[in-house]
Structures are given as C-alpha cells and as structure tokens.
Amino acid sequence: MAIRHGLLALLSQGPRYGYQLRAEFEASTGATWPLNIGQIYTTLSRMERDGLVSPGEQDEQGRVVYSITEAGLAEMERWFGTPVAQSDRPRDELVIKLAMAVTAAADIRPIIQAQRTATMRTLQEFVRAKRANVEGPAQRLVLDSMIFQAEAEQRWLDHCEAVLTASPQTQEKQK
C-alpha cells in the first residue's frame, strides 16, 4: 500500500494536518506501520504537486491543514477498486532464504525450526495484542490479517519440512 493512498483515505474524512494524519494512520493500522513525520510531509508535497490535495492556511501554531481534491477522491476510489496483485507485494525473504539453503546444501531443519519458533512467538504476540487493546474494526482487521499470515507461515513451514524430508536430494545433502 502506498502511503499516499492511506493519507487520501484519511483526508476523505475531512481536512487534517500532518501530525493528525500520522497519528490516525498508525491508529488505523494498529501501529504496525509506523511513519516518520518527514514521510508524511514529503508525501503531502507530492500529492499537492499532483493535484490530489490542497493546502489551507496555516493555523496559529503554524500547521497547514490539507484537504482532498476531486482528483484525490478519484484516485482513492481507483485504488479501492483495484485488487492488489501478488507481484505488487514485497519479496518474501523467508522463501528466498529456504530456497538458497537448499541450493547451498545447508541443513534445512534448524533453519525451519528457528523460523517456526520465531513465528509462533510472533503469533502469540498478535493474539495477546488482539485480546488486549483492539480499539476498532480497522485495528482488528490488521491484527486478524497478521494472525492469519503467521498461521499460514506455520503451515507452510510444516509443508517445507515434509517435502524436504521426503526428497531424496535433500536426504543425500544432509548426510
């Protein structure tokens, strides 16, 4: 997700200044994606250049309040209406690590076990966080997604171990 689209979604609810956008972005995502205030203002400048937002006057504290434009609303609607392709997501370092370990003839079992332990710990943290302080549906959806991803990773690690344990090539490399 581009930061700009998240900011446009927040601005669609009304004008805001940079620090408000940062706080609301982080609250909406359960603080899973912390933003640097510089990112916010750089993104707002680019969106202003592109006609997606317009700055208002400075308030008594020197803060500029930004509003979404018609072009910004159209861009937000386009983003909401466009599915996220698998190719748009970052590369999965774990998949690459395991593929390279197999290629390098490394013992894959301790790598999988270390990851399984770390993923289980992370899963437990997500579940605790969900029980402790989900403030709204946006945070709940973010935490649910993270829980489901961790559960899927655990299943995938089990699958990797089963496939590699059964593979004659892997058995030969591990001797």
How are the SSEs ordered, and which strands pair?
Blueprint: H1 3-11, H2 18-28, H3 37-49, E1 53-58, E2 64-68, H4 70-81, H5 93-103, H6 108-133, H7 137-166, H8 168-173
Antiparallel strand pairs: 1-2
Protein name: PadR family transcriptional regulator
Domain Transcription regulator PadR N-terminal: 7-77
Domain Transcription regulator PadR C-terminal: 91-164
Describe this entry's structure for a reader.
By secondary structure, the protein is mostly helical. It is 67% helix and 6% strand. It has a two-stranded antiparallel sheet. Helix 1 (3-11) crosses helix 4 (70-81). The protein is elongated. It comes from Streptosporangium amethystogenes subsp. fukuiense. Residues 91-164 form the Transcription regulator PadR C-terminal domain. Residues 7-77 form the Transcription regulator PadR N-terminal domain. It holds the Pfam family Vir_act_alpha_C.
User: How do the helices and strands follow one another from N- to C-terminus?
Assistant: HHHEEHHHHH
**Main β-sheet, in a few words?**
2 strands, antiparallel
By secondary-structure content and strand pairing, the structural class works out as mainly alpha
Q: Could you name the ranges where pLDDT drops below 50 across 5 or more consecutive residues? A: none
Strand order, main sheet: write it out: 1-2
